[in-house]
Amino acid sequence: MSIKTVAFLGASTGVGLSALNHTLAAGHKCIALCRTPSKLTDIISPETTPNLQVVQGNAHDTAAVARCLKKDDGTIVDEIVSTIGGKPVLSKLSIDDPLVCRKGMATLLEALAQLRRDGATGRPLIVVCSTTGMSRFGRDVPVLTVPLYHFMLKVPHEDKKIMEDSLAESGEDFTIVRASLLVDGATDKPIRVGVEDPKTGRESNAIGYTISREDVGKWMADNLLLKREAKYVKKIASITY
């Protein structure tokens, strides 16, 4: 097996932590950027997990992100996973940082550009976690959830739309994973996948209510990190139960 190096932005909890765990379990090297490293190292110890490197820093700091995107040989990592996001502020129908995802993507793309200007080579697959309810090609959520998505979640969705567009227009290899409403707990439920091309539209549908954070992370690892399914490259994958 060829050992990959995968960079993670936002792997301390939820989807990112699940994807990190499954990638490590498969024997690959992982570099995780954390504002507070102890949140991750209290769960996974680098001392007993030699393939894990934890870097302290903010996903909105170009220099910190760039440090996570280089392999030991100086080339760019094989894959990048970004699951950063804001904390809900229900009283304002918003999140604590309404620009968190768009700033994170701008920083990531600039870090890649900076590394290439400095001579580093590599073309990683960039995987980001987004959400359903944002398709430009028709409804992609159950009818009963439309008010939730289009009114209560308007602010974070606008942020994710800008993040998605920036990535799709960047010229990089990418997969945008739009998960339905996130719940907790790993399951054995089958996962349905809908595929959308950002330019030409829907190729297949998968409309559902929920999926767990743990199962989203496992799906990302299995289909995009451990093996790179070509049918999802430069596409949007909507996943749900």
TrEMBL record:
Residues in NAD(P)-binding domain copies: 10-224
SUPFAM superfamilies: NAD(P)-binding Rossmann-fold domains (SSF51735)
InterPro entries: NAD(P)-bd_dom, NAD(P)-bd_dom_sf, Polyketide_Oxido-like
Family to which the UniProt record says this protein belongs: Belongs to the avfA family.
Name of this chain's protein: NAD(P)-binding domain-containing protein
Organism: Neonectria punicea
